[in-house]
Specification:
Layout (H helix, E strand, L loop, with lengths): L1 H23 L7 E5 L8 H8 L3 E5 L5 E5 L5 H7 L4 E4 L12
Length: 102
Amino acid sequence: MAGLLRVFSSSFFIAALAASAAVTLPPLPGGAAVVIMPPWVGPTSGVELVAAAGGRLLSTERDGFLIRARFEGPAYLSRLYAGGAVLVLRGEAQPCGSGEAA
């Protein structure tokens, strides 16, 4: 039983590590990105920041803290972070409940 648990926990760790590495890689130019804004900004701040950084809005969650957008060129990352984004991740995965076609 201990051997089975060890195999399962090792497999789970490797899968979790691979999934987190794929998500936390910086977005590719021309690809979708998820912009995470801090909770103390207003609901429109993230959308305004995406527009100012040259992004095209794809979707946003209700409170405006998670914004999915598409950007062209490499300079948008520095503009997003300078404007207050907490984190910018690859956004190829479909957000839950978005109803948006891929």
